[in-house]
Structures are given as structure tokens and as C-alpha cells.
Amino acid sequence: MTPEEYQNSVTRLVEDARRFMDDEISPDREDALNYLRGETDVPDPEPGFSSITSTTSRDSLHTFMRELMRLFAGTDAVVEFMPGEQDTELAEQQTDFANYTLMVRNGGWRVLHDTFRSAVGSGKVAGIKVVWSDAEKVWQDSYTELSDEEMKEFEDDPDADVIEHEIVDETEQIPIQINLEDLSQEQVAVLQQDKDIILDGTEIRRNVRTRTHNATVKFKKPANEIDIQAIMAEELLLDRRATDADSAKIVAQDVQRTRSDLIDLGMTEDFIDRFGGSGGSGEGTSQESQEKRARVGYDIDKDDDSGNVELTTYRLVDGWARIDKDGDGIAEWRHFLALGDHAELWEESDEMVSESQIATFIPFLVENTAIGETLHDLTKDIADTTTCLQRGMVDNLSLTNFPKPVGVEGQFVPASITNRRAVGIVKRPGAFEYLNTPYAVDGVLNGLSYFKAETASRIGVSQAAMGLDPDALQSSSDFGVRETFGKGSGGIEFVARNLAETGMKKVFRLIIQLYARHQKESEMIRLRGKVVEVNPRQFDSGMDLTVNVGLGTGQREAKTSILMFALQQQKETLASTPDGQENEITSPQQVVNTLDKILALHDIKNEGQFFKNPPGPPPPPPPDPAEAAAAAAQAEAEVKGQVEIQKAQIKAESDLQVALIQQQTELAKSLGANEAKALQDKINGQIKESQARQDALLKLREQDLEAMLEVRGQNIEAAKDIEMKNRELRSVV
Questions:
Q1: Distance CA 718, CA 731 (A)
Q2: Tens-digit pLDDT profile for residues 140-178
Q3: DSSP letter (8 states) at residue 45
Q4: Taking Cα atoms as reference points, which of 36, 60, 100, 41 lies closest to residue 233?
């Protein structure tokens, strides 16, 4: 595929995805965002009537977000790597590291919050991008009173640039603790000759000169870290046939980036000027900008007129597409950067990868598509209906409290009727009466209660589960209460499981994959309260992943009860073992594991605060160095004896060969010249062959002896090292 054909393929995929998302998906998302902001499709009332609107969509979203964030941010094991037979420790470390990278290094709370809110509330699908960033981090710091050695460290640092430097020379008078009267005249004369000595009465002071440095240092250092970003629904591009990020033809982030950001990505200023357009939001992003305005309430892409060219924004597509660039008949995943409304490809960004690095999160799955449903899709008609009911109720209350007067024109005093003050004199009007408005609030409240229950039924969150219906919990057993809450939060757990299965699994896999591919050296990181060494070369991104949140994972209280039963059985088993040591069924370490699991279920991290791991079995006693040396000497003597025996066998075989050859030589003397010469040549060849075989065998035996002696020596040294370490350990204890 030529560069022009590749450019056309990328442009076509981007434009098709933009049309699909902007024309068919974006209007529904914008409508959902309006409902979240309290705007409905119910026509505005006439002046004087209530304009209240239902907040069903927003209230439902807030309920979901509280529970989703508790489920995902309240535990360290939302998704876990499943170990093989010998990989338990590695699987635990990968899980801990992926969680640490997301939640600590990349502000995972905000990343998950923004992604979930966008997907569940209005977006139908949102994304998280996981990439390896080697962009330069630039910052500067000012330092004062640096020593010469400290200043030299900055000057020799390849990542530091000293942009300001000031040398400060100061002189300080320091008193010398010597009484001048105690000195002789000769000593005083010597002091007087020193220019740095000051004699003041009976005091002696010395001038001490110091040199320090004040500097401003600018640092430039590659990030070399995993960068995780939330992708809002209006920024996500997918083709219409995609069922998830892995099956899509294209998955990309269509976003605004500053000129400075583009240059940091490697783009040249000439390329930006030629294909970036005039900057700003651009003509092609009007639908995206409308969604953003509906989401945040203001124009987020509007540039200010500060004149700072570096902060001018341009449209950038950071994407992954499946294209057969090399012409082998297989469409491979390729990463690309494209600039402007026409998606002009930045060729240097082209790279073949194993998979896309965007994980898609779908809250309510729809079969065979990556575009799901939202809470708005489930509750829009209820929001419209309750808006009408609430407006009617408010208008009814107003007319009941302030009924409309009816009278004959010219026979009453209008000012007396329209005066609504609570106190004061009212002139008796002429012929008039108040219009009687029936009180209908009770019926409306019943209707609102019905639709509130209907909303709870649709989204799967009951009033009892949210603490809004105490009557449902009265006279209930502990099991009944758990069942009520468990069934009442099924909708939230269902969405949590969807989000974990569709998105979180891939986020964790990408974290491990990128770290193993790009990180060159091991790191010391605090995981589970311990500083451990993390070696990226040991990571395995191909491990299976399991989800621990959402529907199908069981209720917390039920799990706790089961674990408490298991703990009781473990304690009874250990109690029957002398000294409570490990037996065939359980061990003290497994008891600690059970306790840690119980704490984790209730969002309490142990990390050694409550229970510590029991000591492991004592190491086997090291061999006595003296005995090891004696055994090695005996083995050496045995080996040497075997070698001597083998040498004797070889010599005997050689003597026999010589005797046979001598007999053949005597026989050759009785033969003719030609026959004798042929026999002699044969004999010489046999002699050389036998000698070569004997030499090779002897050399091989000697090599075996040297190898055995070397192994014996290493064993002796190892025994000595073990004994020394044990002594050090005993001395520390």
C-alpha cells in the first residue's frame, strides 16, 4: 500500500466514524445531557404557570455513581489476574501493580468517575486510553545557598539546564575562644600580621569567607510512564459495526489539543500550519462542541484572545485502525495520529501494534453492538410524565391557596381583590366571588409515587435498598434484610459487572503489557504496605482475568458469613495440631489470608496493621564446613583413585596393542617387499589410531575430575556462606 493509499484509508475510516457518531449517536447523547441538566421535551408553560421539571435522570445517575464508585474504588481487587500452578505470587503482584498504576499514579478516582458518568448518564459508551508516555516533562526550580559540590551536580546533570546563576561571597567574623591576655607578646605579634585576625580589646575574631550559589535550574526529562486518560463519549470514535474496541475497524479519540501538545508529540510547526486549519474548535466539531456545552454548561472549546499561540487548539485524532498496509491479506492494528478536520496523517506516528490501546465501557449492553443504553433511555418518558404531574400539582396548590376571583365588571374594587397581603383593611367589594379549584394534590402524589416505583423497577434499584422504604425492613430477619438489599441493588451490580467485563479487564491487561514492553529496569514500589521489587521482565499479560465486582460475584454479607465459617474450621483444625503448626488441611498463613479477605470485603485494608504473616518454617541446618571439607577430600581421593585405575586399564590395553603390533611386525619380515610395506602401513595406522583414542579418553577423564572437584569446592563455599549468614541472623535476633 502506497503512502497515498494508506492516507486515504485512514481518512475514510475517520470520516465514516465521525458521521456515524455525529449523525446517529450524538443527538441522543445531547438529549440525555439536557435531561441531566433539568431540561425536558415538555413545552415551556405560559407565563404565570409552574415551570418545574423532573430530575429523575439526574437523581438516578447520582444513585448509580455513588454505588459504582464505592464498588470500584473501595477495593484493591476489582479485577484480578488468575495464577497458574506456580504463578500465585506473580499474579498477586500484577494485580496490585495494575491497581496502583491506575489509582495512585494516574488519579484513578477521577478517571473512573468521569468515564462511568459519561457512559451511564448519557454516552451509551465511553473509553479509557492506556498508553506509554515518553513525552518530556519540563519544570524549573530555584535554589539558594548551594555549595560548590551541589552546584556542580546540577551542571553535570544531562537533564538539567542552569538558566540563572549567581555567586554569593560573604565574610563573617567568628570569635576565637582565646583570651588575649593569656598570649605572649610574640604570639600577639604573629596574630597582628594575619589580615584575617581582628584584635578588639581582649577579644580575638577571625574573618571567615564563604561562597554559595543561587541558581534557577530548568529540567527536561522523559516521562517514561504509563499514562491513563478518560475519553468522554463525545470524543470517542467507533465504526458502526463494532461490538467492542477489539472488534472495531477503528477506535480513536477525537479531541482538541494545543499547539504545544502537538509539538510535544513530535509534529513540526510547518505540518501544524498546513493541515491544522485556523485553530479553535473547527467546522467539523460543531456536534461535538454542542455535546460538550450540554455536558458542562459552557463552551469548553472556545479559545480566548490572549494571543498565546502555543495554547491555540487544533483537532487531533489519536487512533488505532485495522488496515492491511503491508499487503499480506491480513488487516493489522496500526496506531496513527491525524490532524485537522480532514484527518491528515502524521506519517512518523504510524506504528503496527498488537491491539488497540482504548478500552470501551458499556453500561447497558445491547446485543452485537458497542453502542449500549443509558439511564436516560430507561427513564425519559417517566421524566416527561412526572414533569407534567409536578407542574400540575404546583399550579393546583397555587390556585387552591390563591383562587381566582370572578365578578361583574364595574361592581367591585379591583385593588381590594388583588391585594394578597396577610393583614390590612379590605374594602367590601361589590358583586363577586372566588373561583373554587378542587384540591387534586393527593391524587398527584399517588401518581408520583407510582412513577417513582416504576423508575426503581426499570433501573433495578429499589427504594428499600436505598433506605427510602423502612416499612419494607420492619420485622425482617437478618437474612431477609440482606436479601432485600441484595435484590434491590441488582441494577447497579448489573451495570458494575458490565463495566468491569467490557472495560476494566482490558485496562489491567494493557497496564501490564505496556510496562513489560517499555520499562527497562526494576522498581521499588510500596504495594500492600510493603516496599517490594517489581521486575517488568517477569510480567505475563497473557494471564486470565477474573472480575470481583457486580452481579454474579455474591453479596458482601453472604461472603463474610462463608469466610467466618471457613475461619472457624481453620482454627479448630489448627487447635488439634501440636503448637498450632501447619497440617494437611490448613496452615497459619491461610488463616491470615482468610482474615485479610474478610477485611477487604468491608473495604478495610490490612497491610500489616491488624495481622502479620506468620514466620515460615525454619531453614534446614547448614552442613558443617569441617564435615563438608572432609567429605570433599574423601570424594576427591575416590575420584583420583578411579582415574588411576582407568589409567592402568588404558596402559594395559596399550601394552596389549603393542605386543600384537610386534607380532605383526615379525610376520611382515617373512613376506615380500610390497606385502611387507602394506602391512607396515596398516600397523602404523593402527598405532596412531589407538594412541589418539587413548589420549582423548584420558583427557576426558581429567576434565570430569576437574569438574567434580570444582562442584565440591562450590558446595563447601556455599556451606560456609550459609553458616555465616545464620550467625549474623542469630546475632540480630
A1: 20
A2: 899 998 998 999 999 999 889 999 999 998 887 777 777
A3: P
A4: 36
- Name the one residue in this structure whose C-alpha cell is 490532524: 339
> What count of residues does the chain have?
733
> End-to-end alpha-carbon separation of the chain, Å?
70
Give the C-alpha separation, 449 to 246, whole Å. 44
Task: Count Cα neighbours of 403 within 13 Å in the Cβ-side half-sphere.
Answer: 12
> Strand, helix or coil at 497?
helix
* CB of 472 closer than 8 Å to CB of 464: yes
Residue whose entry in the numeric block shows the C-alpha cell 489448627:
574
d(CA 561, CA 568) in angstroms, rounded, equals: 11
AA letter at 243: T
Q: Which residues of 505-522 are buried (b: 16+ CB within 10 A; e: fewer)?
A: bbbbbbbbbbbbeebeee
Give yes or no for a contact between 357 and 129, defined as CB atoms under 8 angstroms apart.
yes
pLDDT digits (tens, 9 = 90+) for 193-224: 777 787 777 777 888 888 899 999 998 888 78
Q: At what angle do helices 56-73 and 108-118 cross, to 10 degrees?
A: 140
Angle between the N-to-C axes of helices 26-36 and 56-73, in degrees from 0 to 180, rounded to the nearest 10: 100
Mean model confidence pLDDT for the chain? 79
Residue-wise pLDDT for 655-674, tens only, equals 666 666 666 666 555 655 66
Counting beta carbons within 10 angstroms of the beta carbon of residue 148, is it exposed (0 to 12), middle (13 to 18) or buried (19 or more)? exposed
Q: What DSSP designation does 24 have?
A: I
C-alpha cell at 366: 445491547
Report the distance separating Cα 120 and Cα 362, nearest Å.
8
Cell numbers found for residue 528: 500492600
Asked whether 543 and 83 are in contact (CB, 8 A), the reply is yes
Cell of 24: 446517529
- The confidence score (pLDDT) of residue 699 equals 66
- Across 323-351, b (16+ Cβ under 10 Å) vs e yields bebeeeeeeebbbbbbbbbebbbbeebbe
Smallest CA-to-CA distance from 128 within 356, 413, 448 is with 356
Helix (H) or strand (E) holding 314: strand 313-323
DSSP bridge pairs for 321: 250, 334
User: DSSP labels for 524-572?
Assistant: EEEETTEEEEE-GGG--TTS-EEE-SSTTS--HHHHHHHHHHHHHHHHH
C-alpha 664/C-alpha 643 separation (Å) is 31
**Angstrom distances, CA of residue 235 to CA of 175, 338, 417, 471, 502:** 71, 14, 58, 45, 18
**Residue burial 34-51, b: 16+ Cβ < 10 Å; e: rest:** bbbeeebebeeeeeeebe
The runs of H, that is alpha helices, within 402-477 are 414-418, 441-459
DSSP result, 250-309: EEEEEEEEEHHHHHHTT--HHHHHHHSTTSSS-GGGHHHHHHHHHHHSS-TTPPPSS--G
pLDDT in tens, 378-414: 999 999 999 999 999 999 998 888 877 766 666 555 6
User: pLDDT above 90 covers what percent of the chain?
Assistant: 33
The pTM score is 0.69
Contacts 24+ apart (CB under 8 A), 718-723: 719/622, 719/623, 719/624, 719/625, 719/628, 720/625, 722/622, 723/622, 723/625
Running DSSP on this structure, what letter comes out for residue 514? H
